[in-house]
Each structure stands twice: as structure tokens, then as C-alpha cells.
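anyone seen this seq b4? input:
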Amino acid sequence: MDIFEKTKGFTRAKDALRDGYYPYFRPLDHTEGTTVIVNGKHMVMAGSNNYVGLTTHPHVRKAAIEAIEKYGTGCTGSRFLNGTLQIHIDLERRLAAYIGKEAALCFSTGYQTNLGTISALVGRKDVAIVDKDDHASIVDGCRFAMGTMKRFRHNDMDHLKYTLESVKDADGILVIVDGVYSMEGDIAPLPEIITLCKRYGARLMVDDAHSLGVLGGGHGTAAHFGVVDEVDLIMGTFSKSFASIGGVIAGDEQVIHYIQHHARPMIFSASMAPPNVATVLACLDVLESEPHWIERLWENAKYMHDGFRRLGLNTGASQTPIIPVIIGDDFRTIGVWMGLWEEGVYTNPVVEPAVAPGGQRLRTSYMATHTREQLDWVLRGFEVVGKRTGLIA
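predicted toks r here
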């Protein structure tokens, strides 16, 4: 059979496009962080991962421009060969200190960071144990590795213990969890996970993509719990609070040195472009010198949690600025999303198979730079559309 034959049967997205309810790949004509323009329509952005709002910070913009003027637009090579600039080394040193580890290594994307780190460490006789709700890049990193992957129920410590017990004779065990889960907005119970890892001789890696710049004064989930020294590897991305693109893995110097020489996605990819590197360095400057932005982020998160609670909406187990509104049906979720779009509120609809049946939702998230007026606009939109669709009684 022609390998392309399967493509002819995929009509779901085109059907939705034809009928006007396809919610994805919609281009933004303009963005100022908290507001966007789409096809001339001004909207409040309630679906960005730009948690601290630094994509438009003057210091950050200036640093990116100056990096282009000094280094040009790209490195045109891998870190292994001609693609390492001094600012790459400077960034890795700054990030190691910020996260609280001996060393750090940067990758060109967060996805590559997980893919490269996990596949470098998990060998044929090793086992990776992952939370069921871990990001797809973690699952793919385990598939790319030569070892075995086991999954435990989300934040279920009894099931994690059972899984660890079942693989205790493996050569090596790496437990991998998200610090903050991107769809639920809840936090991994690191102290309990650390206790179990120590009992079974497992190492622990935490994906802090949605935690750096958010939890622990911006330093991440381990800092939030005061357990930085007890987490073996901390991963982060730059496409959220760091207003750029790329990723980092931080840990003991010898472990990072090993990953540097064995992570194929890093070795065989071009390095981060100079303006991306300079942007992250500038974001670190802001996070260290202007802590009020993180405080403002949490004020806004609390305001929205309280507002959704007053409206009687189901926000699941969220504890962070990621606040899902759980609806539980594909078509109803798309209907509420379309209603909010008309009201000028930008949210992200998440339907099967991205979530399990009954977990369909609008993923909303909030920024330090949202004004109270913008947050009230979002809440009014949910109230109007919620009552119209029966989501709110």
C-alpha cells in the first residue's frame, strides 16, 4: 500500500475548518503579551505561557537587538563544533547558579532537552518511571532511549511505590515528573517522591518548564519545597517565563558533562541563536532584580482562582497561574471556546486525545502583566458564555 494512503482518511481537521470551528494554528497579527489582534479583532490573551510577561520588557528587547548587532542572527552550527559562543557559556553558568546546581547545559528547544537528557542516561537495562500526565517530550525521550518505560498514576504515591518495587532489580532507575503540570496546573509532591526515590535507589529528574519563573520565587519547584539538593536533575524551558526558545538541564557537573557528550539531539542540532541566548540572560537579570513581577503573577493567579470559584466553574486541582476550566465534552468545549472568542477572550481548547474522556477543557493561564481590567474582562466573558451555554447555572 502507498504509505501516503493513510493521509486521505484524515478529514477531521478539514471538516472543522470548513464548518468554522477549527481552533488551532490561528495566526496572531500582533501581540503585546496580554492582548493580541487576530484578523483585526482585539482580544485579551488568557492562554499564554508568558507567565512573567517578559517578552515585551524593555531590557529584554534591547538585549536581543544588541545580540543580533554583535553576533548576527544565528550560529550555523552545533555546540560540538562551531556553534558555541561565549554567551552560551555565560548563560549556562548563570542558569546553574539560579537553579542551584553545579552545572547546566542548554539545548535549542525544551523538547530536545528532555529527548537528549533521557536518552543519554537511560540504557538498555535501565528503567524510566514517569507520571501519567508528564509532558509528551518526556514520553518521547523514554521511547528514544534504549531502556524500559513504566508509568504511574498522576501524583499517586502509592502507585509510584508499587512501580518502584516492581523494577527494583533494574541496573538503574530514573523517575521523571513535571514540577507543574501544564494541563492541570497542579504541583508534583516532591518531598514524598524524593523519599521513595531514596528508598529504592532511584534518581529524580524534574521538568520545570512551567515552574521556573513561577514557583519558589522563580527558582522552580525544588526551591518551592526547599529540596534543591535532593533533586538530581532539573530541566527548564525558555519558551515560557524566559521569553525565548530553548531548554536547559542542570545537575552535578559530572552528570552534565556526560549528557553533553552523549545527547544526540544536542550534538546534532544547531545551537541557540544569539538573540535567543541574550533574551534568557536578560530575563535572568529582570527576575533577579525585579522580584515584584513574580509577586504580581501570584496576585493575578489568586484573583482568577477566586473569580472562577465565584462563578462555580470546575478548575480541577490547579494550584498555579495555569487554571483549566473543565467542561468534559469535545463539542461543548469547542462551543464555549467559540463563544469566548466572540467575547474577545483568547483561550486554548483541549479535547481528546490530548486529555482523557471527561477531561476536555479550556486551558487558561495568566501573566504578571495582566491588568485588573483585563482579568475582569476574562471573567465577564466566562460568565456571559457560561450562562448562555449552561456551563453556569
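Residues 36 and 266 are 34 Å apart (CA to CA). The domain at 58-289 is CATH 3.40.640.10 (Aspartate Aminotransferase; domain 2). kinda curious what u guys think
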